[in-house]
Every structure is written in C-alpha cells, then in structure tokens.
C-alpha cells in the first residue's frame, strides 16, 4: 500500500526535485528514509548554510529547491539566510520535521507548537497539515506557491509519524498538476509605456534582479540600444541584469535618496524594471527624484509596486514585458553612447593586493561564463569597475544583505551548473565566518568552487558607515588573528595565503584548473594580518 512518503515524494519528483539540502535530527529521519532512489542529499553543517546552498542552487537553476530543517532550532538557525531568499524571490520549499502528531500539544522535546508561525512574516505561506492524509496535497501547494509569481520561499512542518502512514484517496492527481502565472501587460499598457519611453527627451533604464532572473538581459540591451539611453543597475544589486561592458552601462546606482536623485538628474523619464523603487541603504534624505522626472515602474511583485513611495507601477512578469517594449519602442534619433574606455589599470602595492587589482586578476583568470558570488561589502564599486559580466546569472550577492550567503550560495550554484559554468566566491574575511561550514560541503561533495577570501582584517563597510554616521571608533569592528588557510584545511579544502599579484595570478590559475574546491586567502590591506 502506498504511504504518505510515497505519495509526497511522487509530487516532489514530478516537479524535478531530486536534491535535498538539509541538516537532520530525529524528527527528520522518517522523511529521509522515504526518499526514493536517485535522490541526492546534500548535508550542510549549519542551517544558514543549508538554506544559502539551496538559495544559490535555485537562483542558478531557476527551479525549486527543497530544504529539510530540524524543528524549531533548525528553523531558527535558518532565518537570516531565509531573509535573503525572500528578497531574491527564490522558490525554496522549506520542510521541517515535527514531533509525533499526538504528542505536539504536550510540548515534548523537539515538538514545535505553533510551527507554522515561526518563519512568518518572512515566508508568505507556511503550514502544518491538519491531518497526515493532507501531507501530499500540502507539499503540492507548497511547490505551486513557491513557483507562482512573484515566487519565494514557503514552509511546511510535517509530523514524523506521517511519512509511514497510508496515503489517502485522491493523491494520484497531484503529481501531474501544474499552476501557471499568466498575467502580462495588456496591449494598451505596452503601448502606453513604449510611447512614454519613445517620446522622452532623455530616458534612462534602471534594471533589477528580476531581469537577470528572467534571463531578459538581451531584451534589456535591445531596449537600451533603441532608446540610445544609459542603463543603471538598481541600488543594492543582488544580480547583474545588463552586460557590464556595454557602452550604455553606467554601474550600480548608489543606495541613498540623495545619490539616486543626483544620478538621475537630467532625465525626464526613468523606467525601473524588475526591482523595488528603491532598495535604499544609506539614509541621506533629499527629494526622491529630480524635479519634473516621471518614474515608470515595472515589477512582477505586487507588494513592491504597492509600497513604492513614488512613480506609476505596472505589475507583470518583467521578461515578456521587456521583450514587448524592446519590440514596440520607436528607435531614438539620439547618438548611441560611445564604447566604454578600457578597464582602468588598478594600482598595485607592496605586501598586499588591493581589491581592485584582485578583481582584475580574477577577470583575467576566470573562464567565460564564470558565476561570481560576491559578499565583500566594501568592495562592490571596485568589483564593478573591473567586471566583464555578459551572461545572465553571472553575479549573485545576498539579496537582503544578510551575511553568510556567499560561501554556501557559491557551493549551491556550482552544484547546479556542474561542468557547464565555474563559480568563484569573492567573500570578505568578515562575511566568510557566517557561512564558513559551506567549505566542508564543498570538500565532501567535491564541488569545485574557487573561494577567494579578501582579508583586510576588519568589517570595512562598517568603517564606512561609522564615517557617515559620525560614530567614530566603536568596538566590534576589527578581526585580527583569523587564519583562513588553517580553517579551510580543517574543513578539507586545500588553501593558500597570498600577498602579491604574481602569486595570486598563479594561485587563481591553479584553482580554476582544479577539479575540486580551492581557497585563496588574499591580504588586501597593509595591516590585514592584524
Ligand atoms: N550580520 C549579518 C548576518 N549581516 C550583516 N549584514 C551584518 C551582520 C552587518 N554587516 C554589514 O552589513 S557589512 C559587515 C557587517 C558585519 C562587514 C562585512 O565585512 P567583510 O567585508 O569583511 O565581509 P568588508 O569589505 O571588509 O566590509
Ligand atoms: Ca573585511
């Protein structure tokens, strides 16, 4: 007789789910025992890493990723990483084991009373089936909800005695069910937007992560070329939606009201596509937009549209909308922007490798199509000054700014891409610690990520903020005495430390040529070793 385990897994496998990212406890063992042959279990040693790996995997494949957590404590450990996945609109299906159904009310050890409440308000859908027989349908609902626009993580708590229970009637229909997001711009809406852009004197595009997630980067190029207009990446970029060496590319918009206003000066029409308006960070008040500027906002996320403080919004999947706009706009009579100057020659130094020089060396060493998972918070501008990113999916950054994404997401993305694309993780010596156990998973499963740790001995970005906020020298900003070579070797990843450009170039060549993970610690500031 079919069990809940058989019926539940039939649903998951029907959606192409053949990988589980997890960290198990007693509540989860019956779920794991029900895993069908051919399913891969990727063990992460901390739940932040488990969710970070799944997030990188889902962003690399575009499909759902299944996570299995241990009750309340496992879910709690996962919350920071979950915030990133929410803002990345990653279709993660989080499951957590629950104690035996009949005992939860007594709050026995490892029961999670009110389990569905715990991950809210981060997830938009969270549930614990009211009966074992509803588990397969609930799993289907979880997958559909995660995948329907605007996409995002969902959570399901499942009592462990459910898995071996007999499946009820009506489970046969579940695996074949599909739900589709079908909304699109109406023809007259497309015309309205195309006319506003086509008749603008000086339009500008501001593109966000949804464009890259939809693989609409080439449509954005056509639109920018027809409009002969500049293109920015929206503030607090978590993906790269536009080729960074295209003549129209201007970089990442700075993340303050004042600097957005200044950067958009002189433009009468701004199209923000696939991003919030705006994901500000530094609080520098000013007018939201230059006087007289009209802002058009295109997003797949109704909440993003509703909460924006300015602009007119259209809610639709951005991929087809950009393709439609690219086809519909009248080409402008303006001259196209000139080609970009050659990459600036980054300065070198004695005894350390400044970040911009490091990024130039990575560009020279990385094979075409390399995915850059970045989490080095004070060096974002230096990275984009040296970046040559063309293919969709070439750049990932924690979408909610929650550190601990970089190392695990790189492992998840490399697992998804296999031998088709290489992944390099460019991670600060602060950020690395929040997801450090991802190194073990990379070693354990021979996932050939090139890990580069930028060691400046400090929380550099916070030093920048200390200047902005005038808080002076505060405790908790320095990180002396970290040795990433010994840490990496302890987790099973071969590593070396470098402090000059030639040695770094050689180390990168070796790492990109390896068939397993490698870690390179780079001293990026004079006093980095502390
Ligand atoms: N904890 C978590 C989970 N997320 C955070 N964003 C922070 C703390 C605060 N934080 C930042 O926002 S940036 C930063 C911290 C601690 C410094 C990161 O240091 P790093 O990079 O070494 O990775 P830089 O280039 O030295 O800033
Ligand atoms: Ca640092």
Task: State the main characteristics.
binds ligand TZD, six-stranded parallel β-sheet, Rossmann fold, 18 helices, alpha/beta, binds calcium ion, 18 strands, 530 residues, globular
Would you identify the CATH H-level superfamily of the largest domain?
Answer: Thiamin diphosphate (ThDP)-binding fold, Pyr/PP domains
The CATH first-level class of the largest domain comes to Alpha Beta
| Unreliable segments of 5+ consecutive residues | none
Number of strands: 18
CATH domain fold name of the largest domain: Rossmann fold
CATH architecture of the largest domain: 3-Layer(aba) Sandwich
Rg from Cα: 24 Å
State the share of residues found in helices, binned by percent: 25-40%
Give the terminus-to-terminus CA distance: 64 Å
Count of DSSP H/I helices: 18
Largest sheet: 6 strands, parallel
């Amino acid at each position: 007789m079919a069990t809940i385990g058989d019926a539940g897994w039939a649903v998951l496998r029907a959606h192409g789910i053949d990988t589980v990212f997890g960290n198990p406890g007693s509540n989860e063992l019956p779920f794991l025992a029900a895993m069908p042959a051919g399913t891969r279990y990727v063990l992460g040693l901390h739940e932040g890493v488990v969710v970070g790996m799944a997030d990188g995997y889902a962003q690399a494949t575009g499909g759902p990723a299944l996570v299995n957590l241990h009750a309340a404590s496992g879910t709690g450990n996962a919350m920071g990483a979950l915030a990133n996945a929410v803002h990345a609109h990653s279709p993660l299906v989080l499951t957590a084991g629950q104690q035996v159904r009949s005992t939860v009310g007594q709050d026995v050890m490892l029961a999670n009373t009110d389990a569905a409440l715990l991950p809210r308000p981060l997830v938009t859908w969270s549930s614990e089936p009211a009966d074992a027989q509803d588990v397969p349908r609930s799993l289907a609902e979880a997958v559909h909800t995660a995948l329907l626009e605007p996409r995002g993580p969902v959570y399901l708590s499942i009592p462990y005695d459910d898995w071996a229970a007999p499946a009820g009637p009506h489970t046969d229909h579940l695996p074949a069910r599909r739900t589709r997001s079908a909304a699109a711009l109406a023809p007259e809406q497309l015309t309205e937007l195309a006319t506003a852009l086509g008749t603008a004197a000086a339009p500008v595009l501001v593109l966000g992560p949804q464009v890259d997630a939809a693989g609409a980067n080439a449509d954005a190029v056509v639109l920018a070329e027809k409009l002969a207009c500049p293109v920015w990446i929206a503030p607090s970029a978590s993906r790269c939606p536009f080729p960074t060496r295209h003549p129209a590319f201007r970089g990442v918009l700075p993340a303050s009201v004042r600097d957005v206003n200044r950067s958009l000066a002189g433009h009468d029409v701004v199209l923000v596509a696939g991003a919030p308006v705006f994901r500000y960070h530094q609080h520098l008040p000013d007018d939201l937009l230059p006087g007289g500027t009209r802002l058009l906002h295109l997003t797949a996320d109704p909440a993003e549209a509703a909460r924006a403080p300015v602009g007119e919004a259209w809610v639709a999947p951005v991929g087809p909308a950009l393709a439609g706009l690219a086809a519909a706009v009248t080409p402008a009579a303006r001259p196209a922007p000139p080609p970009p100057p050659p990459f600036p020659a980054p300065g070198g130094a004695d005894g350390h490798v400044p970040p911009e020089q490091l990024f130039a060396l990575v560009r020279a060493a990385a094979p075409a199509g390399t995915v850059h998972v970045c989490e080095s918070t004070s060096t974002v501008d230096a990275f984009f000054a040296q970046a040559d990113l063309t293919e969709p999916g070439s750049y990932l950054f924690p979408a909610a700014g929650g550190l601990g994404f970089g190392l695990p997401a790189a492992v998840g993305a490399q697992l998804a891409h296999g031998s088709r694309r290489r992944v390099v993780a460019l991670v600060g010596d602060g950020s690395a610690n929040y997801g450090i156990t991802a190194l073990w998973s990379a070693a354990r499963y021979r996932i050939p990520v090139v890990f580069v740790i930028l060691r400046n001995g400090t929380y550099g970005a916070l030093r920048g903020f200390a200047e902005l906020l005038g808080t002076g020298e505060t405790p908790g900003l320095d990180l002396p005495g970290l040795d990433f070579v010994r840490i990496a070797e302890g987790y099973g990843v071969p590593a070396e430390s470098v402090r000059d450009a030639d040695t770094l170039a050689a180390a990168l060549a070796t790492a990109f040529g390896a068939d397993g993970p490698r870690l390179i610690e780079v001293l990026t500031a004079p006093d980095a070793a502390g």
